[in-house]
């Protein structure tokens, strides 16, 4: 059974800092991995998707890496801003079907 | 190009009533997924549908819950005889799958169900 863990559960940093969010999964036979952002009371916004054959993806200040063999992914956020405050979710898919989500990291960027 | 649409956004039901949640996928997408987010818990997969077919319902409770994605119209998640434990946010996602194209799921804003 695939399990996804995100550490830390919550993180608070001052504005401008670079930060790393961690995600680990137990079954390395994944199809892809997605990082999402969820604002309170809202839906999920897809940030980055990494195919199983890829090592990283970048979008603006965000960079996600994937190490399938060790079952780990990281989301790097550069020069954090208060608008980055949200819950960040990691999810893996087994086959082109359902996503298995972690519990999320609640990020607060302090002005 | 409109994203995934869900309605209603908020739904209040009394115990024993029926709840119907609707999801219209993104244009061009023929794969729909439903997920549930219970208070203070992560998102859990419920069901995966293609047009007129249920592909994977391994996350659906065995009783009172059903889903469909008809040839015409939105996907419907139906909860019969709701109980307080059904109170949650229900999210729909859609994807377009073609050979060689990544399977990225796009989520709707969710329906927040409150059972009184």
How do you describe this structure in short?
The complex is a heterodimer of chains A (111) and B (116). With 111 residues, chain A is mainly β. Chain A has no helices and 11 strands.
Tags for this entry?
heterodimer, A: 111 residues, mainly beta, six-stranded mixed sheet, five-stranded antiparallel sheet, 11 strands, 58% strand, globular, B: 116 residues, seven-stranded mixed sheet, four-stranded antiparallel sheet
Map the helices and strands.
The complex is a heterodimer of chains A (111) and B (116).
Chain A: E1 4-7, E2 10-14, E3 19-25, E4 32-38, E5 44-51, E6 56-59, E7 62-67, E8 72-77, E9 86-93, E10 99-101, E11 105-110
Parallel strand pairs in A: 2-11
Antiparallel strand pairs in A: 1-3, 3-8, 4-5, 4-9, 6-7, 7-8, 9-10, 9-11
Chain B: E1 5-7, E2 10-13, E3 19-24, E4 31-37, E5 43-50, E6 53-56, E7 65-68, E8 75-79, E9 88-95, E10 106-107, E11 111-115
Tell me what the structure shows:
The complex is a heterodimer of chains A (111) and B (116). Chain A is mostly beta strands and 111 residues long. In chain A, 0% of the residues lie in helices and 58% in strands. Chain A contains no helices and 11 strands. In chain A, the strands form 2 sheets. In chain A, strands 2, 4, 5, 9, 10 and 11 form a 6-stranded mixed sheet that branches. A 5-stranded antiparallel sheet of chain A has the order 1-3-8-7-6, with no helix packed on it. Chain A starts with a strand and ends with a strand. In chain A, 36% of the residues are buried. Chain B is mainly beta and 116 residues long. Helix content of chain B is 0%, strand content 48%. Chain B has no helices and 11 strands. In chain B, strands 2, 4, 5, 6, 9, 10 and 11 form a 7-stranded mixed sheet that branches. In chain B, strands 1-3-8-7 form a 4-stranded antiparallel sheet, with no helix packed on it. In chain B, strand 4 (31-37) and strand 5 (43-50) form a beta hairpin. Chain B is globular and about 40 Å long. The termini of chain B are far apart. Chain A binds chain B through residues 31-32, 34, 36, 41-46, 49, 51, 89, 91, 93, 96-104, and chain B through 33, 35, 41-45, 48, 55-56, 58-59, 91, 93, 95, 97, 102-110, 112.
């Amino acid at each position: 059974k695939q399990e996804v863990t995100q550490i830390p559960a919550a993180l608070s940093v001052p504005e401008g800092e670079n930060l790393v969010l961690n995600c680990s999964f137990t079954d390395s036979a994944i199809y892809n991995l997605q990082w999402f952002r969820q604002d309170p009371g809202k839906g999920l916004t897809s940030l980055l998707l990494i195919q199983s054959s890829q090592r990283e993806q970048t979008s603006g200040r965000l960079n996600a890496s994937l190490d399938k063999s060790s079952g780990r992914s990281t989301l790097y956020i550069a020069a954090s801003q208060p608008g980055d405050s949200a819950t960040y979710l990691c999810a893996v898919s087994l086959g082109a079907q359902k996503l298995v989500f972690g519990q999320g990291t609640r990020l607060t960027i302090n002005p | 190009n409109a994203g995934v649409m869900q309605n209603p956004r908020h739904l209040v039901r009394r115990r024993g009533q029926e709840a119907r949640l609707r999801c219209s996928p993104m244009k061009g997408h023929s794969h729909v997924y439903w997920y549930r987010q219970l208070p203070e818990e992560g998102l859990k997969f419920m069901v995966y549908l293609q047009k007129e077919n249920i592909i994977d319902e391994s996350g659906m409770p065995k009783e009172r819950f059903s889903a469909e994605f008809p040839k015409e119209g939105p996907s419907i998640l139906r909860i019969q005889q709701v109980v307080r434990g059904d109170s949650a946010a229900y999210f729909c996602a859609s994807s377009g799958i073609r050979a060689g194209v990544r399977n990225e799921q796009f989520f709707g804003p969710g329906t927040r169900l409150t059972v009184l």
